[in-house]
Write a structure and sequence with these properties.
485 residues; 3 domains; Potassium Channel Kv1.1, Chain A; 41% helix; alpha+beta; 3-stranded mixed beta sheet; Apoptosis, Tumor Necrosis Factor Receptor Associated Protein 2, Chain A; 17 helices; flat
């Protein structure tokens, strides 16, 4: 009973302090309001806010420990670090349902909290957020703060840190941080953060492969990446080199190594590179039996036409599906200066297909970029006289059309998927921000550059006032299934 009375008195004291702070702020409001020289008519409502003063005084309340009614004793698992924070039950319970439940069941003015070392190191920042509604943090502090926000059910902070992490994937850090954030998100069940990290790693894999972070990723993340067709990298050979480095560094069990090596798309490598791998790669020499069938099919793929291959093999399996290769054999970069002004066009060539049977065959492509193209669903087709209305209008959406310069009998059975990689500048680095797939026009997507706001000079999609793109043409053999006997 005595403890309950003490708790009530402490709560009443804190309420009194808060009311005093609010009264002081209100007094300041009146003074400031008088200095403004009066308002408008009787129906007008003006707002003058000095909430910052109230926040500053609440922070002082935490720092000085005035009217504190609870001591938070933060201990690490080995109890080698102890941090004591004088706090106020009313504030803790107001901000955190977990704290509210914890404080209701306590039988002492001291509450012992056991936290991991990384969480204990930022616990004072976490408590300060409960008083002030803001937190300053570094990249390495994001995960422990997210853990605390999750544990104590501070949903707004949890969402805020998730947003901070997704917006700072491109930040430089000594040993990398995206893979670590992915592993944490997977464990914590944060689907938004997990998907954002996986997408960033997939779309910027070339730079990730060159970082110190690559060889530290888990086997689970490795397989998640290897199975994707939207990886952006120079070539499949670059991916194999990265996988080889990962296997040498981590020395995984045989099954893990074999599964990873079987996820490589050897058919996307020219025969000369396959020969070199078989003679020079120590990793492939060790596990060659596990991928012998894939190498054999890849050599067959390069020696015969896709049409002949389709009569005997399933050419729709991942082995024969290209990824988003940046090599000039698969597409071309395109920098569009002042992209809001006029239509632009460019031409480039690609290899007809990844098979060596098509290595000498080239396809010329014409690409047209229009900054203001009215979507088909909004387009008036004809006037009263029967003439077609113009389709480029102010307020229309950006659009890219990619078509072959000539038709060819070699196209039979080949379905060309076009991919536009849209770069953006984040934290001073050029990264792939969006990937759009279509067959002829980005109008098939409906959301091409919908959020780019190219008219705004500060748009992250503009690099020195230019739109930086990379076009990839991916030949797919899906239509050849009908040719199988």
């Amino acid at each position: 009973m005595v403890k309950q009375v003490a708790h009530v008195r402490a709560g009443m004291l804190l309420v009194a302090v808060c009311l005093r702070l609010q009264a002081d702020a209100a007094g300041m409001l009146k003074v400031d309001g008088a200095q403004d020289g009066g308002g408008g008519g009787g129906g007008d409502v003006d707002t003058i806010s000095h909430s910052l003063v109230l926040v500053q005084r609440l922070e002082a309340l935490l720092v000085q420990g005035n009217a504190s009614d609870v001591s938070l004793r933060v201990e690490t698992p080995n109890a080698d670090e102890v941090k004591v924070i004088q706090a106020h039950s009313l504030v803790l319970a107001l901000q955190s349902p977990a704290f509210e439940e914890l404080l209701l069941g306590r039988n002492s003015s001291t509450v012992v909290l056991r936290e991991s070392s990384d969480c204990a190191a930022v616990f004072d920042k976490f408590i300060r957020y409960l008083y002030c509604g803001e937190v300053s943090l570094r990249l390495d502090q994001a995960t422990p703060l997210h853990k605390l926000a999750t544990k104590y059910q501070v949903l707004v902070l949890q969402q805020g840190i998730t947003q901070y992490m997704t917006q700072n994937l491109a930040r430089d850090s000594p040993s990398g941080h995206v893979a670590g954030w992915y592993e944490y998100a997977l464990q914590a069940g944060d689907a938004t953060l997990r998907d954002s990290c996986l997408q960033y790693l997939s779309w910027n894999l070339s730079s990730v492969l060159q970082s110190k972070e690559w060889v530290t990723i888990s086997s689970q993340l490795l397989m998640s990446l290897l199975q994707r067709s939207d990886l952006v990298l120079q070539s499949e050979m670059e991916l194999f080199a990265g996988l080889e480095a990962w296997i040498i560094q981590n020395e995984p069990d045989g099954l893990t190594a074999e599964n990873a090596l079987r996820a490589v798309r050897y058919a996307m490598m020219p025969p000369r590179e396959l020969f070199r791998l078989q003679t020079q790669s120590s990793v492939l020499a060790r596990y060659q039996e596990s991928v012998r069938d894939l190498l054999y099919m890849s050599y067959q793929f390069h020696s015969a036409s896709p049409l002949q291959m389709a009569k005997h093999f399933d050419v729709n399996c991942s082995l024969f599906v290209p990824r988003n290769y940046l090599s000039l054999a698969w597409g071309a970069p395109w920098v569009i200066n002042n992209p809001t002004r006029d239509d632009r066009s460019t031409s480039f060539q690609t290899q007809l297909g990844p098979s060596s049977h098509d290595a000498s065959k080239r396809v010329t492509w014409n690409a047209l970029f229009s900054p203001r193209w009215l979507p088909l669903s909004m387009r008036p087709m004809y006037t009263e006289t029967g003439a077609m209305q113009p389709t480029r209008v102010e307020g229309g959406r950006p659009r890219i059309i990619i078509t072959p310069a000539t038709s060819s009998a070699d196209f039979a059975g080949v379905n060309f998927q076009k991919t536009v990689l849209v770069m953006a500048q984040q934290r001073g680095r050029l990264v792939v921000r969006h990937v759009y797939n279509f067959h002829q026009s980005t109008e098939e997507n409906g959301d091409f550059l919908a959020e780019a706001d190219l008219h705004r000079r500060a748009s992250e999609y503009l690099v020195d006032s230019s739109l930086v793109l990379h076009i990839v043409v991916k030949p797919l053999y899906q239509t050849l299934i009908a040719a199988k006997n």
